[in-house]
UniProtKB/TrEMBL annotation:
<keyword id="KW-0067">ATP-binding</keyword>
<keyword id="KW-1133">Transmembrane helix</keyword>
<dbReference type="GO" id="GO:0005324">
    <property type="term" value="F:long-chain fatty acid transmembrane transporter activity"/>
</dbReference>
<dbReference type="GO" id="GO:0016887">
    <property type="term" value="F:ATP hydrolysis activity"/>
</dbReference>
<dbReference type="InterPro" id="IPR003593">
    <property type="entry name" value="AAA+_ATPase"/>
</dbReference>
<feature type="domain" description="ABC transmembrane type-1">
    <location>
        <begin position="97"/>
        <end position="329"/>
    </location>
</feature>
<keyword id="KW-1278">Translocase</keyword>
<dbReference type="Pfam" id="PF06472">
    <property type="entry name" value="ABC_membrane_2"/>
</dbReference>
<keyword id="KW-0547">Nucleotide-binding</keyword>
<feature type="domain" description="ABC transporter">
    <location>
        <begin position="460"/>
        <end position="684"/>
    </location>
</feature>
<keyword id="KW-0378">Hydrolase</keyword>
<dbReference type="GO" id="GO:0005524">
    <property type="term" value="F:ATP binding"/>
</dbReference>
<dbReference type="GO" id="GO:0140359">
    <property type="term" value="F:ABC-type transporter activity"/>
</dbReference>
<dbReference type="GO" id="GO:0042760">
    <property type="term" value="P:very long-chain fatty acid catabolic process"/>
</dbReference>
<dbReference type="InterPro" id="IPR050835">
    <property type="entry name" value="ABC_transporter_sub-D"/>
</dbReference>
<comment type="similarity">
    <text>Belongs to the ABC transporter superfamily. ABCD family. Peroxisomal fatty acyl CoA transporter (TC 3.A.1.203) subfamily.</text>
</comment>
<keyword id="KW-0812">Transmembrane</keyword>
Length: 718
């Protein structure tokens, strides 16, 4: 019986062991698979964002270089307001350290008076403590006030610097259109700057004061030990404290997660989620028309789940790290602190130190006072060391925020100097899905444009200038033409052939990768798109945009004349005057917004007006009056349109065929209209052929092919 049970137990043990091993192998294989997927996902994200990831060593040369560059922006000179606030903040921190030491001695005096049972000394010490508490409370509040003011000053400095870089040389356009390194520049300019400055200021406070505390508290403890000449501890205690600090620091450094990389990734995912919400708001009408809310909801929930997973990962990693941190710096340090306090007292072999030989001949009250003062000082010193060592985690988080802010400024500077990095859409390697012609018509845009832009007096001259999109698609390989102010050019062609791209090249929004472009100063161009931009402000601001009221050069009567040119004089009375503030984007109709956009060319009177389907919602008669008045003012019109009614107002035709070819010739309006009428007539005739063929097939089925053939033969015999 016993052997049978033993055999069953062995079989059960072997089966359980085999099942456990199989389970562990399965879990390990799943872990390896998830790790590979995560590595692949991270590599793709890094390729997309093109941002160098943070390494394991957060405090490296790269971090110190970045933080040094940013500090130069935050504190440009000694006379800056941020430097003065920094001095005030340092002064409050030092004052708080001396107050902490004084309060520790007061605690010792209170305990000593209690041991001596001396009411007078007790009340005296309590009175001093309460009186000192008032300035101590003020200094504590002043520390927080100075920290908040310093953080706000840093944020203001960095925000102004970032905005100057963002709105210089059309960087706001280039960073989102021509470059792909910053996915969410709005978050970089707001949340990232605020988080970086607040983290930097908070870390400065939590590092500066602990260093002051350690220095002054160490000096106070050494002075107390020296007073006891017969005690041993001046050498043993510092050595023991140093060993404990090294052990704690090495343990936390080895076991600390990469908080910098984790926080940076969390901020990136938060920015993508915000961008998705912004996209839904911007395209709410189209989504509502198609009832696409379920698709958008699933996409946003997917992005939120990615953010939740990252945040949850940080929380889990902090759980074990904070547990280790609390164990080492609270309980382990407390035990070591009690040992270091006890060494001078236990090794003292001199006479009893007392100020009351009759009531306290053994000096118990003096030892109690010294013990209380030492304990308070060591507690303060331990707290300071705890803040210094635990700040490694905050420094790692600061490194993540620093990398994002520095990368933002670096990308702004690159875009301002026409250095772009963009990940192009890579065509499929399958020959059936990608033709060789398409592969030949793409270039790498990760290099600086080598074309020349030369300022001319009046003419627009293009010499072998290619039209290349920001993604690297070659629309036109070489464009050479000359446009003078006396010309009015009509630009036509199919969608995606390069009509609007030509405007972007001429205006300087897109880089020129080869050739030469002679053009006047950009102030001589004014673009009116199909959907004109309505800025916040009054009706006057809409007409004179981008000028402001301060630099406007016309009066109200001239503005009314401008509105009369575009048949919008009635809108002044309807909306309550030129100074009425409205949400013009929603109040005005499509035609009114287009005419208000056209009013801007009558105000600015540029040399060249770039008109991109800007009259699609305007009636033909009003459209003709506007074009005629613009020509009378000497404005050269470069128009993209599909309306034949506008051909009569132009002298030349620039036509793209959509396959990279183009023609530039004198516009013969009558010939074009004749050809257009013939084309429409032929199309109408050809449109009836399928119906005739269909009717013939129906008759064939009803009558029969043999009858038709017999009839045809009889007719031939006759």
């Amino acid at each position: 019986m016993y052997s049978l049970r033993s055999r069953r137990a062995k079989i059960l043990l072997a089966t359980s062991s085999f099942a456990l091993i199989a389970y562990l192998i399965r879990r390990y294989r799943r872990y390896i698979l998830l790790k590979k997927r995560r590595t692949l996902t991270n590599s793709r994200e890094q390729t997309t964002t093109n941002v160098t990831p943070l390494t394991r060593k957060t405090l490296n040369k790269r971090f110190f270089h970045q933080i040094r560059i940013l500090i130069r922006i935050l504190i440009p000179c000694i006379r800056s307001d941020s430097f003065l606030l920094l001095i005030v903040h340092l002064t409050t921190l030092i004052s708080r350290t001396f107050l902490s030491i004084y309060i520790a001695h007061l605690d010792g005096a209170i305990v000593k008076s209690l041991v001596q049972r001396n009411p007078r000394n007790f009340l005296r010490a309590i009175s001093i403590f309460v009186s000192v508490a008032i300035p101590a409370s003020f200094i504590n509040s002043l520390i927080r006030f100075a920290e908040s003011k310093l953080s706000l000053a840093f944020r203001s400095k960095l925000t102004r610097h970032a905005y100057d870089a963002y709105f210089r040389n059309q960087t706001y356009y280039r960073v989102s259109t021509l470059d792909s390194r910053l996915l969410t520049p709005d978050q970089n300019l707001t949340d990232d700057i605020e988080t970086f400055t607040s983290t930097l200021t908070h870390l400065f406070s939590h590092l500066t004061k602990p260093f002051f505390d350690i220095a002054i508290i160490s000096w106070s403890l050494v002075s107390m030990v020296r007073q006891r000449k017969n005690a041993r501890g001046l050498k043993e205690v510092p050595g023991m404290i140093l060993i404990v600090i090294i052990i704690t620091f090495m343990a936390l450094r080895r076991l600390s997660p990469r908080f910098g990389k984790l926080v940076s990734e969390e901020a990136r995912r938060r920015g993508i989620l915000r961008f998705a919400h912004t996209r839904v708001i911007a395209n709410a009408e189209e989504i509502a028309f198609f009832d696409g809310h379920e698709v958008e909801k699933s996409w946003i929930l997917k992005l939120y789940d990615q953010l939740r997973e990252q945040t949850n990962s940080i929380i889990k990693k902090k759980l074990w790290f904070v547990m280790l941190e609390q164990f080492l710096m609270k309980y382990f340090w407390h035990a070591c602190g009690m040992v270091t306090i006890a060494i001078p007292f236990l090794t003292y072999d001199g006479p009893a130190e007392t100020d009351d030989p009759i009531g306290d001949p053994l000096g118990i009250s003096a030892r109690t006072e010294a013990f209380t003062v030492s304990k308070n000082l060591l507690t303060s010193g331990a707290d300071a060391l705890e803040r210094i060592i635990s700040s490694y985690k905050e420094i790692a988080e600061l490194a993540g925020h620093t990398d994002r802010v520095y990368t933002m400024l670096h990308v702004f500077d690159d875009c301002a100097h026409s250095n772009y990095q963009r990940t192009p859409i890579i065509p499929s390697e399958n020959p059936s899905e990608c033709s060789s012609a398409l592969a030949k018509r793409k270039i790498s845009v990760d290099h600086r444009a080598k074309g020349e832009i030369i300022e001319s007096d009046e003419d627009i001259i293009a010499e072998n200038v290619p039209i290349i999109t920001p993604n690297g698609d070659i629309i036109v390989e070489s464009l050479s033409l000359k446009i003078t102010p006396a010309m009015h050019v009509l630009i036509t062609g199919p969608n995606g052939c390069g009509k609007s791209s030509f405007f972007r090249i001429v205006r300087g929004l897109w880089p020129i990768y080869s050739g030469r472009l002679y053009r006047p100063d950009p102030s001589n161009f004014f673009l009116i798109p199909q959907r004109p931009y309505m800025c916040p402000g009054t009706l006057r601001d809409q007409i004179i945009y981008p000028h402001t009221v301060d630099n406007a050069f016309v009066d109200d009567s001239q503005l009314m004349e401008i509105l009369n040119n575009v048949e919008l004089q009635y809108i002044v009375q309807r909306e309550g005057g030129l100074n009425a503030e409205r949400d013009w984007k929603d109040i005005l109709s499509g035609g009114e917004k287009q005419r208000l956009g056209l009013a801007r060319i009558f105000y600015h009177q540029p040399r060249y007006a770039l008109l991109d389907e800007c009259t699609s919602a305007v009636s033909i008669d009003v459209e003709g009056k506007i074009y005629e008045r613009a020509k009378q003012l000497g404005i050269s019109l470069l128009t993209i349109t599909h309306r034949p009614s506008l051909w009569a107002y132009h002298t030349h035709l620039l036509q793209f065929d959509g396959n990279g070819r183009w023609t530039f010739e004198v516009l013969n309006t009558e010939k074009l209209l004749t050809l257009k009428d013939e084309k429409e007539r032929l199309e109408s005739q050809l449109a009836g052929i399928p119906e005739i063929q269909k009717r013939l097939n129906e008759l064939t089925q009803l009558i029969g092919e043999d009858i038709i053939t017999t009839t045809e033969n009889e007719e031939n015999d006759d």
